[in-house]
Amino acid sequence: MKGWLLRNPEKMNDPSIVKIMKVVEANNIDLTVVDPLKIHVICDHDFDGKIYVGDEVLEVPDYVVAAFFTEKNYHTGSVLRMLESVGVLCINSYDCIKNVDDKLLTFQKVAESIEEVDFPKTLLVTDETSAEFVSKQFDYPLVMKVMHGSKGKGVVLVNTEKELDNLISMSTASAVGDEIIIQECIAASSGRDLRVVLCNGKFASAFIRQNEKSFRSNLAKGGKIVQYTPPKSVIEAAEKVAICLKINMGSVDFLFGENDTFYLCEANAMPGIAFDLQDMFKDLIKQVESMPEPLWKKRLREGEQTC
Fold first, then answer.
1. Number of domains forming the structure of the chain
2. What is the pTM of this model?
3. Which of 197, 218, 193, 229 minimizes the C-alpha distance to 208?
4. Which of 185, 212, 236 corresponds to the end of one domain?
5. Which domain holds residue 176?
């Protein structure tokens, strides 16, 4: 069973990557690091199982671990779509990564199809957004964050309209390079949230991240992990979100509201530090074995002619 880890070989020092590679080495897993930027994207009706990576010619893998791109652009997205089109199991798929990478899109997808999952009211900041308008829509404090941030970066708590006006002016006047959103603050969840880990779209485990020194619970900001068994309703909600966003292996994070309510916070494509990685690779193999034979393999095996 051959797998690829899509990652720039010069950027392998991320803690999640280090953890994955230790498990790979210890269990003799056939996982090759391949730079997605070097993969040539070719769409060919007569595909023969060969993929061109720089000057190399490689056989199509059985699966790819694709959750740790350092570059997300049209090319890397096309790489994933090409691999999916020839029957490669992608963890996670192009659609999944697109859905969870965009925090606003995550909520829009959920609002469209899952009535029972609540989430913080969210506003996209544009040149037309004024602090006065926001104050009519939200109570203070509120949360302001970059759309595609991670590890708690680019997230601030805003307490007054004046403070918000200054932040909006700065964000719209500078080349931030990312969209900005404003969200309702779920005060009861300050400094803590619930992460539900999913494997093959199903509940695997859960834990609370909590931080006594910041409203941000992220481990990168000093948060700690406390094991937790969520209510059945939350597990069911997480699995519905996974289906909606096409998450195979990943997590769905919830905020704690008043009176035992929960709000969807965000979703993630395979946060490596949260997984039992040995079980993850075992499940990958099971998924590959259960996949239907791709058309190109059937054509080559049966010697079929194209029209």
1. 3
2. 0.88
3. 193
4. 185
5. 121-185
Q: Find the distance separating the first CA and the last CA of the chain, reported in whole Å.
A: 33
Q: For 52-111, how does the pLDDT look when each residue is reduced to its tens digit (9 = 90+)?
A: 999 999 999 999 998 665 667 899 999 999 999 999 999 999 999 999 999 999 999 999
Establish if 52 belongs to a structural domain.
yes
The CA-CA-CA angle for residues 8, 9, 14, to 5°, reads 80
Rounded distance between C-alpha atoms, residue 81 and residue 79, angstroms? 5
Token pair in block for residue 189: 């969840």
CA 140 to chain centre: 29
Strands 180-184 and 142-146: antiparallel
Helix residue ranges per DSSP H, the chain: 15-26, 74-85, 94-101, 103-113, 131-137, 161-173, 232-245, 277-290, 295-302
Give the model confidence (pLDDT) of 234-277 as tens digits.
999 999 999 999 999 999 999 999 998 999 999 998 765 666 78
Q: What is the CATH number of the domain that holds 162?
A: 3.30.1490.20
More confident residue, 65 or 153: 65
User: Is residue 112 domain-shared with residue 219, that is, in the same domain?
Assistant: yes
pLDDT tens for 20-35 read 899 999 999 999 999 9
**Is 274 part of a structural domain of the chain?**
no
Mean pLDDT computed over every residue of the chain: 90
Radius of gyration of the chain (CA): 21
